[in-house]
């Protein structure tokens, strides 16, 4: 399941005209369930997932653009409190994101706006986060040089990168758990068996 959060929607516009909506349609076309939300509804999105039977068994990826980057990080934190890992969290020109929760397995921080509309903030690890944050300068992906914060939301090359980072081979990309995931999710650490020598 892929959850996407659009940026702040200008007056008179709708989420349905955003680049994240286009991305949602492309992911659905590949056969994977995807939903797009206004960034204000990150808690409702998380609660919708948690209300589903077998929610803990569903591979989840999340991405957010601009203010949606903050929503994506808060969504991941809400899942952490329920003991659910996030396979990939991708923040796309994130505006004031929360620290990355320790249940996130793969983190991608896309940035690269030029000019006066530099609004993004670099992702920072949260408490107990033991993974790595991959930094990606999306301006290098743009063939037509659209490097501004607003223009990138509909930049085809950047959106393709986001899609490929989240899904592949008809499913959500699976990532290896970071070293501290079990403790983060409140799960018992795997017990190690100790060989004992027979008494002589």
From TrEMBL:
Taxonomic superkingdom: Bacteria
Tell me the SUPFAM superfamilies matching this sequence.
Answer: alpha/beta-Hydrolases
UniProt-listed InterPro entries: AB_hydrolase_fold, Thioesterase
Pfam families found in the cross-reference section = Thioesterase
Q: Where is this region: Disordered?
A: 178-200
Q: Which Gene3D superfamilies does the UniProt record give?
A: alpha/beta hydrolase (3.40.50.1820)
| Record-annotated Thioesterase domain positions | 56-101
Q: What is this protein called?
A: Thioesterase domain-containing protein
Annotated organism of origin: Pseudaminobacter soli (ex Zhang et al. 2022)
